[in-house]
Specification:
The chain is an all-beta fold.
């Protein structure tokens, strides 16, 4: 069992930055692939970024590539999402998720544990 708690969301102007954190408790965090997803108003949950258990592989949605960076610190049981040059279309609830797929995944059904989400709002 893994519990995930996101933090770091907020309101920011377009062009600004935020850093989301996801603190994990439970066992064997360093054996899970981790991902960030987001869900905007009246939209389906969409993949943002993922990272493998060993920090070797990262993947990004095309819409955030070059602006967002996912990273993890296994010693602290934490995964991060650094978001730069934010746009109004990035407004959403951001969710952290853990997958037994060690390499991470773009597909939300392959994630086993989810956090409660943190709101990110970007004003124009």
């Amino acid at each position: 069992q893994v519990q995930l708690v996101e933090s770091g969301g907020g309101l920011v102007q377009a062009g600004g930055s935020l850093r989301l954190s996801c603190a994990a408790s439970g066992r064997a965090f360093n054996t899970y692939g981790m991902g960030w997803f987001r869900q905007g108003p009246e939209k389906e949950r969409q993949f943002v970024a993922s990272i493998s258990w060993s920090d070797t592989f990262t993947y990004y949605a095309d819409s955030v590539k070059g602006r967002f960076t996912i990273s993890r610190d296994n010693a602290k049981n934490t995964v991060y999402l650094q978001m730069n040059n934010l746009k109004p279309e990035d407004t959403a609830v951001y969710y952290c998720a853990a997958s037994r797929q060690k390499g991470g995944s773009r597909w939300y059904p392959e994630y086993d544990y989810w956090g409660q989400g943190t709101q990110v709002s970007v004003s124009s």
